[in-house]
Design a protein that fits this description.
Rossmann fold, 2 domains, four-stranded antiparallel sheet, elongated
């Protein structure tokens, strides 16, 4: 438990003060509430009321009771305010720390947790921990203090009867522990199913166009209903078990009240069997303390329920906070990339240690600075995997990757990734203007630089066609621009970094062949010193490259320029012939 809670407590930080002040006011409130029955018993003491000056006696103790009530209310209000401040601030810091930690994760770390699970941990789990933290500051501190005060006062009034509470408490504790042991496995399952629920929502919202185009709304609805029903069913079972708290607590409270009433009344009637001068007012106070003691147990059961629910959330959050990224910058890492040369030396890679098969095997490859390299291969041939090793999005399982003559593991990550610019297969634009999206590449870029890179990426023409030009607002995910326009904006964004290595992962698949050719020509003319790696499905996109690599099954089958591969590689020749015939058929169809 300590290992789970300790990483979370680091997020309290500037809210330590309200976290400490809250228990102080809770202690003051508990003390006042425990003193009230004692002074009430003194106020209605029959011997005092039978003497002269009874009214003064009543007014004195009445004033004390009013002051205690005021202090109790004031302490409760202040404790509530400080507890709310501390818990909300703690949750805010916790979300910040989680998000910051996730930003440092490698792709492998994100794959390990899954996106849907990380979303659940940042939202539902943090909310559960926040509520539990607030309840612990208020009730969990108040309950033991009030319990101790009430027990002390009970023994002050009548030690013989007070032992009833001491006997009942272990029995009650055993019942609560038994409930906790039964219900904990349910909550472990519930939060895993929360991940599945979030995953269903994420997939459906992200792929809403595909869902609607294939008329799969009913299927997705059923899938969501199934995930939601599983969460509901487990929660229902867990809550049914936790609901036993109240009847168990009520039973023990009633048992204690009956025993105290019976034994106390017997003591009064038999004139001091248990205590020499036990009075009805003391019996009333003792019953009140008995109710307070067992009410403390009732409140503890509430805390117990919340902690039981939130402990699994705390464990899941702690997993993220204590997880070390697989890829980190070395101490005194290299801060300059000399040039865009790349070398793969006996590289093999698999996505996890448990994976039975390597995604890449025995890769030996040298790319000179300024070269244009094309990568071809069927779907699943690990083309994307290969290029993701260059900017250290993943680390090679075996062998080494060098950029600018230096092992990528020796570079400071920021340096390496600034000089190795990659346009991933899945293009992503963020909500904001075109200028704001482009400046992800260089936040200090001038308007002239923005125009230049857009011209290189063949994006300037369609941007100027928009009424607001470069100030045109892009919706989340770039939904208000076409696929080809999105690709060109992403290419321009990458160029703005002035990288030494530019990687295009099938990033011109949505543009026509003419635009594709213009982009490649611009690259040749304008950035000749930049190493360009182009993953493509069309041979036309890479046939003019200095070097073309043919991948299959994670292995390099052939490497050379276009003319060499036509002579030496059967696979390349088959792809070329198939695409050439396809273009010929399209041309004939157009002429007809």
């Amino acid at each position: 438990m300590v290992k789970t809670i300790k990483p979370l407590l680091k997020s309290v930080r500037q809210y330590k003060k309200p976290s400490v002040i809250t228990p102080f006011f809770m202690a003051l409130e508990a003390l006042c509430e425990c003193l009230i029955p004692f002074f009430m018993a003194q106020m209605i003491n029959q011997d005092a009321l039978a003497q002269e000056g009874a009214m003064a006696h009543i007014l004195t103790y009445g004033g004390i009771l009013i002051l205690l009530a005021c202090f109790s209310i004031m302490s409760g209000v202040l404790a509530g305010q400080f507890a709310a401040t501390a818990s909300c601030g703690f949750a805010s810091n916790l979300r910040h720390d989680l998000f910051y930690k996730v930003q440092k994760f490698s792709f492998a770390n994100v794959d390990e947790f899954s996106t849907s699970s990380l979303v659940t941990r940042l939202t539902t789990d943090v909310t559960n921990v926040q509520q539990s933290y607030q309840m612990c500051l208020r009730i969990a501190i108040r309950v033991p203090l009030q319990f101790i005060f009430a027990i002390i006062m009970s023994f002050t009034i009548n030690a013989s009867l007070a032992w009833i509470f001491i006997v009942i408490m272990p029995l009650l504790a055993l019942c609560l522990i038994a409930i906790m042991r039964v219900v904990m496995p349910f909550f472990k399952r519930i939060f895993k199913k929360y991940d599945a629920l979030n995953n269903s929502v994420q997939e459906n919202v992200g792929g809403i166009r595909v869902v609607k185009s294939f008329v799969r709304e009913q299927y997705e609805t059923q899938k969501f209903d199934k995930a939601a029903s599983e969460v509901r069913n487990d929660f229902t079972k867990a809550e049914k078990i936790l609901a036993l708290n109240n009847p168990i607590m009520t039973f023990f409270i009633n048992v204690a009240a009956v025993l105290i009433s019976y034994l106390g009344a017997t003591a009064i009637i038999q004139s001091g069997t248990l205590s020499g001068d036990f009075t009805p007012t003391e019996l009333s106070a003792l019953i009140t303390y008995g109710i307070q003691v067992l009410s403390c147990c009732m409140m503890f059961s509430m805390v117990f329920v919340m902690i039981t629910m939130s402990f699994e959330s705390a464990r899941r959050i702690s997993e993220v906070l204590t997880k070390q990224s697989d890829i980190v910058s070395p101490e005194n890492g290299v801060t300059e990339v000399k040039d865009g040369s790349i070398r793969f030396e006996n590289v093999s890679f698999k996505y996890s240690e448990k994976a039975g098969k390597y995604a890449l095997s025995d890769i030996d490859l040298t790319i000179n600075a300024g070269e244009t390299v094309g990568i071809l291969g069927s779907t699943g041939s690990s083309k994307t995997t290969l290029i993701q090793l260059i900017p250290r999005l993943y680390d090679a399982t075996e062998g080494n990757v060098y950029v600018g003559g230096v092992n990528v593991k020796d570079y400071h990550l920021d340096t390496l990734r600034k000089d190795v610019s990659i346009v991933l297969q899945k293009n992503v634009l963020f909500s904001g203007t075109i200028k704001e999206n482009l400046r992800w590449g260089n936040e200090n870029a001038t308007d002239e630089e923005l125009v230049r890179v857009c011209q290189l990426a063949q994006a300037d023409e369609f941007i100027n066609a928009f009424p607001d030009g470069y100030d045109t607002y892009i919706e989340q995910g770039g939904t208000n621009v076409s696929g080809g326009q999105k690709q060109r904006l992403c290419i321009a964004r990458a160029l703005l970094r002035k990288p030494k290595v530019l990687i295009l992962d099938d990033s011109t698949s949505a543009v026509d062949t003419k635009t594709d050719a213009l982009i490649r020509h611009a690259f040749t003319q304008e950035i000749p010193d930049t190493t360009k790696i182009i993953i493509a499905q069309r041979i036309a996109s890479v046939e003019h490259a200095d070097k073309i690599i043919v991948l299959d099954g994670g292995k390099i089958l052939a490497c050379g320029n276009h003319d060499e591969l036509l002579q030496t590689s059967e696979i390349y020749k088959e792809i070329y012939d198939a695409q050439t015939k396809s273009r010929a058929v399209e041309t004939e169809g157009g002429e007809a």
